[in-house]
């Protein structure tokens, strides 16, 4: 049986709009499910997921800029003057991350170590790694703090004689490469055993593993897999709301602090759970042995990608009085004005305090200790994370922190007998990372996928309506034409009949 063209057209006109409406409604009602299916197949971490290569190795190395504070008046500071500082740098390095020793676990986590590798970039730097810089000697400041806390004034004669004999100094002048990575030798390292033999009770003051052959702020960290520790992170398998969250560090879910401050929690930095809210995000920092909280600031656009900006505000390093969440990070009986974080528990008892650069957002108590060289600036010294909220992928990160060494007066110790208490800025650094240009379009497409699917759904419904309207108009037009033809056909028939009768008359006459 043959199907006429008109019947086929009617069938198409009836079925096509129905198909478009149904598919459009499916897209409108399931756009979130489609997004989550793509998310789970591509971003949820597994050895075969699309995100795995970018997680194991950064697609583009981060940039690490380091600034050192040169002390212009070390002799005067030793006599009680305020330090005059001069900022050197930036000394810029590329920073690559590589995850190694991976173990995929049945509870939806992956265990791994991380290798961080730095390479100097002279063309982006202001200065050479061979520049000489005078800084406070962290080794001397640490031994001074240990003596002040553990040795009675009546017993300080012997440690003082020992420190003078080995010519221990509160300030040292070293090259940039020695201060940051290569390390410099301190005479105390050669004579620790002699000091312990002379004063056996000193041994309990020295934490195990704290004495090395050299000292540098990043000594032994370049290209090694042990300094960052062992991470265990949720991959998002099973529960996407835990995506990228650190489950344990160094095989423990507890850190070094009491209460909630000792909980190992927060993101590892590469991923956050999908569907972020305008509240806060948390990140676990192995360098600081704690969780960092950044509060929502505003919505921004990064390379066309809608992002939420979370910032380190004044509550970030506020004391326990201003921010009760930080109270358990403070040593018992120790009160500090807001703006610094005591990392001594995390650094073998060394009196190292972390702040934002130039004491940005810190109490003026710290700035008043410095004669010159510091100028806090929100543009240059603030920390922010910009994250695409739907997929939880960072789009632009700038993390800025400053290392400060507490130098305090210690009576009975010659090199510290006259100094004033000072939180001494030694260096600050800036880590910058973002979405590579090669991935920006894919990120934008993923971020806008639900809207794209919704738009396609509405477009299909609109197209079906347009087809129905056009079909209706065409059918109405045809019916109108047919109606006119039917109205004129009787006249035509009568005319034909009359002509036919006339022809018959002529025939009869013949």
Fold and architecture overview:
With 510 residues, the chain is of the alpha+beta class. 33% of the residues lie in helices and 25% in strands. The chain contains eleven helices and 15 strands. The chain has helices at 5-42, 52-56, 74-78, 138-150, 157-165, 176-182, 187-198, 364-367, 378-381, 437-447, 449-509, and strands spanning 62-71, 85-104, 109-120, 132-136, 171-175, 230-234, 246-249, 280-285, 290-302, 305-311, 340-342, 352-355, 384-388, 393-407, 422-434. Strands 1, 2, 3, 6, 7, 8, 9, 10, 11, 12, 13, 14 and 15 form a 13-stranded antiparallel beta sheet that branches. A hairpin with a 4-residue loop joins strand 13 (384-388) and strand 14 (393-407). The radius of gyration is 37 Å and the shape is elongated. The two termini are 53 Å apart. Mean pLDDT is 87; it is low at 503-510.
């Amino acid at each position: 049986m043959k199907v006429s063209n008109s019947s086929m057209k009617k069938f198409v006109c009836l079925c096509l709009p129905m198909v478009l409406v149904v598919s459009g409604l499916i897209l409108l009602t399931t756009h979130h499910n489609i997004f989550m299916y793509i998310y789970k197949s591509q971003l949820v971490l597994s050895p075969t997921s699309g995100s795995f290569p970018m997680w194991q190795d950064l697609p583009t190395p981060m940039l690490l800029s380091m600034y050192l504070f040169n002390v212009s008046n070390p002799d005067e500071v030793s006599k009680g003057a305020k330090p005059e500082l001069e900022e050197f740098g930036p000394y810029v390095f590329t920073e690559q991350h590589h995850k190694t020793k991976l173990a995929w676990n049945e509870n939806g986590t992956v265990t791994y170590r991380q290798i961080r590798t730095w390479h100097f970039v002279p063309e982006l730097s202001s200065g050479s790694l061979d520049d000489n810089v005078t800084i406070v000697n962290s080794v001397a400041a640490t031994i001074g703090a240990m003596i002040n806390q553990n040795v009675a004034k009546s017993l300080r004669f012997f440690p003082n004689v020992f420190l003078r004999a080995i010519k221990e100094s509160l300030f040292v002048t070293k090259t940039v490469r020695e201060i940051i990575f290569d390390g410099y030798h301190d005479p105390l390292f050669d004579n620790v055993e002699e000091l312990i033999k002379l004063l056996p009770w000193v041994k309990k003051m020295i934490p195990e593993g704290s004495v090395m052959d050299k000292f540098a702020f990043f000594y032994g960290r370049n290209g090694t897999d042990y300094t960052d520790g062992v991470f265990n992170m949720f991959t998002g398998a099973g529960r996407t709301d835990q995506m990228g969250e650190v489950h344990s560090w160094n095989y423990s879910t507890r850190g070094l602090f009491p209460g909630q401050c000792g909980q190992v929690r927060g993101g590892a930095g590469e991923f956050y759970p999908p569907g972020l809210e305008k509240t806060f995000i948390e990140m676990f920092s192995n360098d600081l042995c704690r969780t960092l909280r950044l509060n929502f600031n505003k919505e921004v656009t990064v390379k066309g990608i809608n992002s939420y900006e979370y910032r380190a505000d004044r509550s970030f390093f506020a004391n326990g009085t201003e921010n009760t969440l930080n109270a358990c990070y403070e040593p018992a009986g120790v009160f500090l004005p807001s703006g610094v974080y005591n990392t001594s528990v995390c650094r073998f008892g060394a009196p190292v305090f972390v702040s934002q650069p130039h004491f940005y957002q810190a109490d003026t108590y710290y700035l008043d200790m410095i004669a010159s060289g510091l100028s806090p600036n929100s543009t240059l010294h603030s920390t922010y994370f910009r994250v695409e909220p739907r997929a939880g992928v960072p789009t632009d990160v700038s993390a800025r922190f400053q290392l400060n060494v507490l130098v305090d007066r210690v009576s009975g110790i010659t090199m510290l007998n006259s100094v004033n208490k000072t939180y001494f800025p030694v260096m600050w650094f800036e880590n910058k990372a973002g979405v590579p240009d090669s991935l920006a379009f894919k990120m934008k497409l993923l971020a806008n996928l639900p809207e794209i699917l919704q738009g396609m759904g509405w477009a299909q419904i609109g197209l079906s309506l347009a087809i129905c309207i056009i079909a209706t108009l065409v059918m109405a037009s045809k019916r109108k034409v047919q109606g006119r033809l039917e109205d004129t056909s009787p006249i035509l028939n009568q005319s034909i009949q009359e002509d036919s009768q006339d022809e018959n008359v002529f025939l009869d006459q013949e």
